[in-house]
Design goal:
Elements: E1 2-6, E2 9-13, H1 15-30, E3 34-42, E4 49-57, E5 62-66, H2 77-84, E6 107-110, E7 115-118
Antiparallel strand pairs: 1-2, 1-5, 3-4, 6-7
Helix pairs in contact: 1-2
């Protein structure tokens, strides 16, 4: 299970939803866009299931951290799959088997430039 911190609030969701959310957030931000998504969450006190709506992309920081969890984990696989089907989620090109976008080995993330730069 993972804690997602967003806008000063923390929610708990499954590893697969957190991974898909982080990947999608980075992809949307790389396009210079923002988008609204809804993810399933679990309330820590009573383990009830709920939802959280977030705006992801440019200007929206999302932090994912592992958390200890007691008891069975909920199955949020459908929600993770929905995030992965978002139009901006990075995926491999269907015909060539290559990624839809390519990052050169000499490329790195430069926070001062708000994007990728060359070494």
């Amino acid at each position: 299970m993972r804690c997602i911190t967003y806008a000063g609030e923390t929610v708990v969701t499954t590893d697969d939803v957190a991974e898909a959310l982080i990947t999608l957030t980075a992809a949307v931000a790389e396009l210079g866009r923002a988008d609204a998504v809804t993810i399933p969450i679990v309330f820590e006190k009573n383990h009830e299931i709920g939802e959280a709506s977030l705006v992801i992309g440019v200007g929206n920081d999302v932090l994912s951290v592992a958390t200890e969890w007691e008891g069975p984990e909920p199955d949020f696989a459908f929600a993770a799959a929905q995030l992965r089907h978002h139009p901006h989620f990075p995926r491999e090109a269907e015909s060539s088997g290559e990624q839809a976008y390519e990052i050169e080995p000499d490329t790195y993330w430069d926070p001062d430039l708000d994007g990728f730069g060359s070494r």
